[in-house]
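Pipeline run #58 for the internal structure catalog. This entry was flagged by the ingest filter as a single-chain record with no existing model, so it goes straight to prediction. Upstream metadata was stripped on purpose; only the residue string is passed forward. Reviewer on rotation: M.T. Logging verbosity set to normal.
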Amino acid sequence: MIRQWALLLALVGFGLEQACADTIELKEKAAVVGKVLAEKPDQVAVDVGYTVLVIPRNQILRIDRNSPSASRTKYAVPPPGPASEAAAVAGATEAAFYTAPSKPQPARTVLDLVKQIGEAVVQVRTPGGLGSGFFINEDGFLITNFHVIENETQISVEVYHQRHGELDRKTYKQIRIIALNKFADLALLKVDDRDAPKFKYVDLGSADALSVGEKVFAIGSPLGLERTVTEGILSTKTREMAGTLYLQTTAQINPGNSGGPLFNMSGDVIGVTNMKATAAEGLGFAIPVESVKFFLDHRDAFAYANDNPGNAYRYLEPPSHTRHSTAEP
């Protein structure tokens, strides 16, 4: 019963925004926003717009009546199963996997935003080079570029924790590859160190909501210079290169920035920086955050397997015309 409603919840998303909605707080920091239709001793029926969820009472912490709609939508991890186990998302089956604003957030200064979200941006190191990345949840899952870790399995992540007003650099060496998409140049990693704390993370915004000319800024490690901040504008949202659309920005992007976040002035990630024009300045490019969300929502299809690292999660054996033609009737 629990698995059935959890699967449905994963399909419709956590925290769907409704006016004058009730908020049902669940275990593991999850929540459902909708209209409570009926309550029974063992279950509660909730209208979330697309469908009606029946939630077991033992999974509910409390119900807030007519609470204001949540300002951020939480996207859930799929329920336990072979795919999610292969994708190595253990321990977060009911928690939100990443968060995204459901409405525009107020603009702030780069100075204020860097203080707030800078700790979520990390440096990714391999024997062959380095790049940048950023946490998408407190459990240590982070995004970087595929080309940053391509052909590498020995990966470390440097995080600058803010403690008592000072920065404390910490290197984590137990890094697991969760999913890879070579064609979108994206990789999902996880910090597995035993002493790892809960990490600061960033929200995933919307590149579609931006207008050309709006201010953006990037944080990364160009040439290994960690926590470097560059500011610019969004030059275009539809720069086509090799059949793929990229965001173009005047924010300075250099080797080492790859895999780092490009932010709007609300502090939401709107792209993942991945390349620049080498013969010119002010021509940086980033993968739109919509591609990142698609990658995360379908990460089981791109799951990395140690015993078969060249392929995605799993495929059925293809039909064989030879086998059918030689089989006895």
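catalog note: Confidence is low (pLDDT under 50) at residues 1-19, 77-95, 323-329.
catalog note: The two ends are 43 Å apart (CA to CA).
status: ready for reviewer M.T.
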